[in-house]
Amino acid sequence: MELTDAADPRVDVYSRLSDAALRRRQDTLHGIYLAESSQVVRRALAAGHRPRSFFLAQRYLDSMADVFAAHPGIPVYTGTDAVLETITGFHLHRGALAAMDRPAPRAPAEVLAGARRVAVLENVSDHTNLGAIFRSAAGLSVDAILVSPECADPLYRRSIRVSMGTVFGVPWARVGEADGRGRAAWPGVLHGLKSEGFTVAALELSDTAIDLDSPALREHDRLALVLGAEGPGVTSETLDACDLQVKIPMASGVDSLNVAAASAVAFWELRPRA
To answer: Cβ contacts of residue 145 below 8 Å, gap of 6+?
Structure first.
């Protein structure tokens, strides 16, 4: 379907994508997420997610013809670069976009079933860091991810893009939100992890933290690693709920790494060895 009017209401879900706050409200309102880039769109579809529409420049139509053929009846919106850029707020140079139905939230018990290594993300608000953590988790044997109530949305388009679509493959759940039914609010959910046999360790630079390469850490069959926001780190309340604190041994003059880089180092070092 050729777009000639940037105000066409059929493509409202693709409008003003550069406004992150607006996008979060729009995504919640419409029950969607946006997959950005042809590769990410294909990975979303391979994960079984359902498309509502596709949105791409005319020059990418042929490269996505097999996708459109596999999803007959799903609208495909196209137009000149100028019209599409007016709609989205930026130049499209990664191929296709797609509006996808958000999958139903997963229960923590479901994503933790059989898991040995779990990442727990507290208040990680930067979508780039979040996507990079998911990508490292997928590649370095992390079985599941839990995100706190204030953590950024793993299905925000930038998070998905930076993760290269691996967010669709790593089981994750949001935990700790008050619901009036007696479930423990954040960070009380960490006690639930302990009851499931997990040792809960916070990656935090402190006087009591042990080195990440300590042999003692490898003795824990089920390990949950808590990562905090860039800058503030893990909150004091969450540290109190953890069993121990761990740190990456650093060369003189450098005290820490970016949280995404630190997650990759920690996931590698703490991966199951047997």
So the answer is: 111, 118, 119, 120, 121, 133, 134, 137, 154, 170, 171, 172, 173
